[in-house]
Write a structure and sequence with these properties.
Blueprint lengths: L12 H9 L5 E4 L12 E6 L2 E8 L4 E4 L7 H6 L23
Antiparallel strand pairs: 1-2, 2-3, 3-4
The structure holds zinc ion (ZN).
Length: about 100
């Protein structure tokens, strides 16, 4: 029986989100080294008491995302809250029947 549970002093995602939301001074953010910065514009890696965590934060909504370096940019490309703009209730579409009955 091999348990791979890490005994590092890492926090759970909920705990990370909690300290992020409450602006706890023990949390800090830093972009990892060796990454393509264009994908990290809106993200930073999460540090708790200067210990790197397996999480990143989306700077747009301060959302915590599970991330390890092996994930690369997959997590970001799946997240995309920038693209998920709040959906405004669109008025009933007007049918544009142009150049239909010629
Ligand atoms: Zn986001």
């Amino acid at each position: 029986m091999s348990s791979t549970n890490s005994t590092k002093s890492t926090l759970s995602k909920a705990e990370i989100q909690g300290v992020v939301t409450s602006n706890d001074p023990s949390i800090s953010f830093k972009k990892p080294t060796g990454v393509r910065s264009e994908f990290w514009t809106n993200y930073s890696q999460v540090y708790h008491k200067n210990i790197v965590q397996d999480y990143i934060i989306c700077l747009q909504r301060r959302a915590v995302l599970k991330w390890i370096s092996e994930n690369g940019i997959i997590v970001m490309s799946h997240h995309n809250c920038l693209k998920n703009k709040p959906v405004t209730t669109t008025p009933s579409r007007q049918r544009t029947i142009s150049s239909y009955c010629q």
